[in-house]
Amino acid sequence: xxxxxxxxxxxxxxxxxxxxxxxxxGRTLSRYVIGWFRQAPGKERDFVAAIRGSGVDKDxxxxxxxxxxxxxxxxxxxxxxQMNNLKPEDTAVYYCAADISYTFDASRYDYWGQGTQVTVSx
Length: 122
Fold this sequence. Notes:
Blueprint lengths: L2 E5 L2 E4 L4 E8 L7 E7 L6 E6 L6 E3 L7 E6 L4 E6 L8 E8 L11 E2 L3 E6 L1
C-alpha cells in the first residue's frame, strides 16, 4: 500500500503562489506516476498535472499550463506542485494520487491523499 499526504495549501491572493507537497510512505514512489487533481465544491474531480517516475515527462491541464509546475524528489519520496499566478478559479481541494500506469484519468489512480485546501481570493 501507498500512503500519500498533501500539505502546503492555504489562502492566497490572486496572482500569488503556493507550493503543494505530496509525501509518500509505505512504499517508495519512484516507480509510480504522480498525478495532481483538484475538486471545487459541487464540481467533479479534475486533472491538473502528472509526472512519470523518472520526473522527465510531465503533462498539465490547459487551465494551468504555464502557471503550474509538477516535480518530484524521489530521494525524499515526495512530489510537488508549484502554483504561480494563482486565479480565483484555482480554488479547490487539491489531491495527489499515485498509480503504476501513466494516466490522466482520476478513476484509474489507486492511491490518494486526503487533500489540501487552496483558496485564491480576488
